[in-house]
Fold this sequence. Notes:
The structure is a homodimer.
Chain A: E1 4-6, E2 10-13, E3 33-37, E4 53-59, E5 69-70, E6 81-82, E7 95-106, E8 109-113, E9 122-128
Antiparallel strand pairs in A: 2-3, 2-9, 3-8, 4-7, 4-9, 5-6, 7-8
Amino acid sequence: MKNDVIRPIGVIRSELTSLDSAPRLGEEGAPDAFLEVVPEYQEGLDGMLVGDEMIVITWLHHARRDVLKVRPRRDPSNPLTGVFRTRSPHRPNPLGLHRVKVLEVRAGGIKIGPIEAIDQTPVVDIKPVAWLNDY
Amino acid sequence: MKNDVIRPIGVIRSELTSLDSAPRLGEEGAPDAFLEVVPEYQEGLDGMLVGDEMIVITWLHHARRDVLKVRPRRDPSNPLTGVFRTRSPHRPNPLGLHRVKVLEVRAGGIKIGPIEAIDQTPVVDIKPVAWLNDY
Lengths: 135, 135
């Protein structure tokens, strides 16, 4: 088992510009955003429809990769917990999962929301959500 | 935006040993498996409980990364569709999302299921599932 290279397939364009202004969960007032897909991967959007529910996978490039325990939601009264049981951005591979709805399909990308990722967050994959509830 | 390095945090130990024997969706008879976490990241499991519902993120190392359109479920009657609207393992970053239940917490890892990933599939992250339905 070896390391591998992960490549951005796109980037988030959002009004959220700082980590401090970003809500920590989708339901806490996150805005809509534009997911700009890099030209060489735009064909991968073919068939995408307004109303589709998708999982957007981001690469939280500001996160620390050497953290293994955190206090969830940065609340000092919460016990130290392994990062794999939390949504902390700080984790060995700083992947973020964001459940969104497709609001518009345009040349160059898709408008999606709500999403708490900040402006310029790299996107590494997009997948349909339906199956997550299908078992 | 640049490429980055993704590191395995663990590996799937499963009775599924070939891509041909692997069911394509969790509900189609996938077995349980052991998720062995590499020693340096085992602390990240602290607090994990039997019964937890998690998303396991795999790196589908046998997949092709140069495919942008597929016929879903390999059915020739399905239209060619952008990979980002499908669960095809073939995609620019071959990430797999697997919703599982934690069945046992042991030294060295967790028993999980059901999961359709084959033996020796690298695991790159583990996250709680609850929030996915929370909006």
